Amino acid sequence: MLMSRLHKFLTNSENGLASSSLRFWFILSLSLAVVYSIPALGEAFSGEFVVQDDARQHVFWMQRFVDSQLFPNDLMADYFQSVAPAGYTWVYRLMAMVGIEPLLLHKLLPPVLGAIATCYCFGICVELLPIPISGFIGAFLLNQTLWMRDDIVAATPVAFVYPLLLAFLYYLVKRNLLGVASAIAFIGLFYPQCVFVCSGVLILQLICAIANRPRRDFEPSFYIITLAVAILILLPYAFKPSEFGPIISAAEAKTLPAFLPDGWSNFFDQDPIKFWFCGKRSGMLPTEWCVLKFNYFFLLIPPQLWAALALPILLRYRDRFPLLTQVRNLDILPQILIASVSWFLIAHALLFKLHLPNRYTEHSFRIVVAIAASITITAILDTLLNYQLSIPNPKSKILNLQSKIPLSFLIVFALLLYPPILKLQDYSFAADSYVGAEVPALHKFFQSQPKDITIASIAKEANNIPSFAHRSILVGGQGYALPYHKKYYAQIQQRTLDLINAQYSTDLKQVRRFIQTYGIDLWLLDRAAFTLYYVENNNWLEEFRVKQPIVEKIKQGNVPVLSTLLNKCSVFDTETFAVLQASCILKND
């Protein structure tokens, strides 16, 4: 009797989609989304100077919406503003107009986006398999994936992919023309690459519909209108010229250290598994499905992926899994995969013209796996809990009544255990991607300076200055030095080399020329910057291929000019940093 009641509660098989059961599992799914967001929220508001890693580049410039005098003639602010999608920009602009500053909004948005994604994921799962618990399982798996990654917590354009792509799939399954068209339009405003995937799905459905004619539900106008919306939303991107020059070609990228295996935008790798499957930018699979051991990449198939891969097998044995007879519209899952992989290959063929190939598969793969796994797990749980299931040969039963509940919990336990296993392998989770100020007083000092100053520095802490102090820096570290637009990267590269050469120069005239050329007002220095240990362990110097000459200078006893001015021209000091006044350097004899 207990097993029967539990089975009815989980599957609600007798009453179909009863509103009370549906409401229960939906509320539970939303509650789960809230619970998963708590660690990230706790980290985001753990201090005054805390920002998500990627937001340091994609959000800092939006402080211009609060104060138009910030970041005047700032190369990096202008660049990131120029590449920001229109919808993403307007969300932050509108919120700034009502008093919510961009750096606060980027902390508040992730739970909202996660909740919206959860709602649509729940709806899709229940549409494909009309059992309420399938929606909960799908939402559970999706949230587990979302909050293991830093995509959604960054509140950058990629954070909007999940709620919008799920919305597209939900309305497509429902055959809601207005919903599909609106979802495509919003995707184009926030993450245009994903429009190609949506278009691919629509084209595949159109081909299938034509091949299966005559069909009463075949509506050519549905596909004509939605594909027309996709084309119209992409046209501005196709014809919009960039003030930062053309996109770099594959041949040119292979000559830059940034794209090589040890570079900060590493793309080209000799390991074919990493390049085609596990690469953060070049690979087909989400990075959490891969693990690096002994300098080689291996595929790490998580429990939910095993469950998703098992779905086609289970569908062949529907007599053993009777719940699968209720599955409908399942063709949409392979259609998403085919469209995603197709655009992944096209992006490789047209390298960098369609941005990065990985962006066409990693998000859709995560969504498909969560949905497919939810169907598999629901069907297996139904079979395990339905102790009246008849099998012709009782002796060949794989499971008996006593083992059904333990195995059910084992499946759930495996899914719950997956994130802690990754944590033991030093995998970074969403809450781990926030960055705090090393010396908060430093940023308070910069905040007190004029708004139009320019700060020169190769210190890592300089990357936080635009977000925490709202002041311009001459160049930033890896996240700022994106090498995709040739004109932008050429300027960043030249500035960086000039800065490094001036910082370690023994010629005062060279230092002065640098200050006057770039209009430097303050110079932030690590107090250890002129030691051999600092130089030898500075990846930034290594990546710009200037480390060895500087090492040789220090070994020969050459004294950089700035090292002699640390005390004389310093206007702010800590044990770690010194800030030099550029005007003092210019006046020094």
Provide an overview of this structure.
The chain is mainly alpha-helical. The protein has two domains: 2-240 and 301-431, no CATH class; 438-587, 3-Layer(aba) Sandwich (Rossmann fold). It is 56% helix and 6% strand. It contains 26 helices and nine strands. The chain has helices spanning 2-11, 19-44, 55-58, 75-83, 86-97, 102-128, 132-146, 151-154, 161-174, 177-190, 193-211, 220-239, 250-253, 272-278, 303-316, 332-349, 362-385, 401-424, 440-447, 465-468, 486-503, 508-518, 532-536, 539-543, 547-555, 582-587, and strands spanning 50-52, 290-293, 296-299, 434-436, 454-456, 472-473, 522-526, 570-573, 577-581. The chain has a five-stranded mixed sheet with strand order 6-5-7-9-8. Strands 1-4 form a two-stranded antiparallel sheet. A two-stranded antiparallel ribbon has the order 2-3. The protein starts with a helix and ends with a helix. 42% of the residues are buried.
Morphology? elongated
Number of discrete domains: 2
Strand fraction band?
A: 5-15%
What is the CA-based Rg, rounded? 27 Å
For the record, give the distance between the C-alpha atoms at the N and C termini, rounded to a whole number.
93 Å
| Uncertain residue ranges | 13-17, 387-405
Number of helices: 26
Assembly context of the chains: single chain
Structure class: mainly alpha
The largest beta-sheet arranges its strands as: 6-5-7-9-8
Could you tell me the mean pLDDT? 87
Main beta-sheet annotation: 5 strands, mixed
Number of strand segments: 9
Helix content: 55-70%
